[in-house]
Amino acid sequence: MKDDLMNKLMEEVMKKMDEVKETGTVAAATGTGVSGLTEFVGTAVGNTIGFVIANVDKSLHEAMKIDPKYRSIGILSARTGAGPQVFAADEAVKATNSEIVSVEFARDTEGGAGHGSLIIFGAEDVSDAKRAVEVALNDLNRTFGDVYGNASGHLEFQYTARASFACNYVFGAPIGRAFGIIVGAPAGIGVLMSDAALKAANVDLVGYSSPDNGGTKFSNESMIFITGDAGAVRQAIYAAREVGKQALEALGGPCPSTTTPYI
Amino acid sequence: MKDDLMNKLMEEVMKKMDEVKETGTVAAATGTGVSGLTEFVGTAVGNTIGFVIANVDKSLHEAMKIDPKYRSIGILSARTGAGPQVFAADEAVKATNSEIVSVEFARDTEGGAGHGSLIIFGAEDVSDAKRAVEVALNDLNRTFGDVYGNASGHLEFQYTARASFACNYVFGAPIGRAFGIIVGAPAGIGVLMSDAALKAANVDLVGYSSPDNGGTKFSNESMIFITGDAGAVRQAIYAAREVGKQALEALGGPCPSTTTPYI
Amino acid sequence: MKDDLMNKLMEEVMKKMDEVKETGTVAAATGTGVSGLTEFVGTAVGNTIGFVIANVDKSLHEAMKIDPKYRSIGILSARTGAGPQVFAADEAVKATNSEIVSVEFARDTEGGAGHGSLIIFGAEDVSDAKRAVEVALNDLNRTFGDVYGNASGHLEFQYTARASFACNYVFGAPIGRAFGIIVGAPAGIGVLMSDAALKAANVDLVGYSSPDNGGTKFSNESMIFITGDAGAVRQAIYAAREVGKQALEALGGPCPSTTTPYI
């Protein structure tokens, strides 16, 4: 058998593996994306799935420590991604009559260096919970836009002109202000980008997390959370993105966006 | 080269990758499954391996905090699976003169969303420790029967008509009563199944765990532990399994059993 | 299509997947390994990357809790490997005018059973920080020599005739004495090797870690840290390596060294 045929095949296989790891799109594409379940809302990039429960079982409601005033919950659950889902949930709570009940991060990304996530919305009415999940699912294509990756790691940037309750709950973002996050994996790239960002613009450092300081649940990421003037936060992100891409490409080759950059 | 040949190849490759991820059977098949080591007992599904140590080194015995009365230990260690190994160990302590010394969960499953496990049996006599490991290894084909998976996640159900010391140690199961667990990944599927289970039958909720509440060691799973009448526990599991399969298939396509369903 | 052609292809694919998982060399090979960044130092096996920051941003410096006397930091960050990087850093602090600022372990290895790592060196002068990172990167080919792996797990052994500050910081190694570590995954293999090592030679047990006792951050590894006479430490490692290889090969077939054994 010819070696170059083998090489061509291997190339395709490796490419496919990377796609699966980074975005989950291949896996999602193999699913039907629809379901006969009344609770099912939809699926999105990152092996993300959304449900709604109109009237949560009483004993489960207590075990999950959900505020008794929310009879209905919306569920946004993903194998790959935490920042994209949190920023999408931030838009969802702005746009709907729902609130953030809890946000949990798993150490996941299907063999990658980051997180999966479980976000619970609470609402008094099931239609509000459902609308929150729909808004978030629809926003994920945007919030995966500044997630860049290759087989060696990933970079993530998120920005909002006006942080709301999801960003406040998770990152301590000041509500109503411009806010961004800068994430790099392996973690050293996160440290490098954080330094570049903070030197590039006059922003306030809200928080720093690294693999074993309690913040990242043992993911191989370092990250900062920043606030300030809208222009300054974006400028800091641009500076970080430039050095981050050079660093990650030196380690693992081209690191394209998962969808389309939005910042 | 024809595209459909390439597609066919990619399909086979993806299938193979899934098999490896979910059950470890391919990897196991490449090993000999036998060894010249006197301590070696055997291997099983889930990249599970079993050993026995007749007389544990004194300093290691202390460091592992093993009760001094157990000179001999049996070791059941797996890359993929925690529930299957715990329920197999439950049968092992019922059937042999051994006890559970410790059960630890690792965040593993070879890139998947769940756990690996390390279970230590204690016995005064090495033949008892060995027998416990043998019983557990032989039971794994059964306890992997209600583990369902695809590239996007997995579902796990376990049931025993009479919980023993392993289920009590790990899940707080009441000894001698019917007991079951319901696990879904990504975690949102676990929440959905838990709600369905608790609404379907009159069972008692023993515990709930999710990615970042301390219970699941950052796996991307939510799960409940239930007890009650044998029929009710099984009925709750059937209801959960039905909605869980629909949800996971909407996300990632068909999710077959790892071996053969037993519940 | 002929089945044996398909089988041959699958074999090649599985081999390639293993390479990626265990050493990261394939991924690294796709990168350029050079970068226009002034902070970039280099890359090495295990998807390891090194940087230097001459003058860390003040707010980041505080958030990272770096001792104010170090203006400059060196960064050694890896997707795969903790022991190899710590022992390489140990040589780096011996050989340069730098110190260990922090060592953090992530639960990583790109879908494998172990860790990635983030090591920060501190120095008053940037040239010292840079030299430390260079020495460590150059030493990684050696320290990956006694890392053995297959699709089912891995074994790791490290040895130094004279432990320095990195080994002291991470493992509690007595400075200036012979010191070694013995690591096995899945964790049961680590227990088996630890017992064999401690029975084979008169060494002192410095520490024991397992998946869920706080030490290994939920990796699927058990490990011991040992000190004593140089000959005894090596003898303990040889005994562990012999049983470890037999056990891991029984589970997953041949488990070659990542580079070239050095102990």
TrEMBL record, chains A, B, C:
Compartment(s): Bacterial microcompartment
* Pfam families registered for this protein in UniProt: BMC
Keyword annotations for this protein, in alphabetical order, are:
Bacterial microcompartment
Tell me the ranges covered by the BMC circularly permuted domain, including all copies: 35-151, 152-250
**SUPFAM superfamilies listed in its UniProt record:** CcmK-like (SSF143414)
Record has tRNA processing as a keyword: no
- Keyword Magnesium set for record: no
Note the Gene3D superfamilies from the entry.
Answer: 3.30.70.1710
Domain of life according to the entry: Bacteria
NCBIfam families assigned to the protein according to its UniProt record, in alphabetical order: microcomp_PduB, PRK15415.1
Name-wise, this protein is: Propanediol utilization microcompartment protein PduB
What species is given as this protein's source? Acetobacterium tundrae
- What would be the name of the gene that encodes this protein? pduB
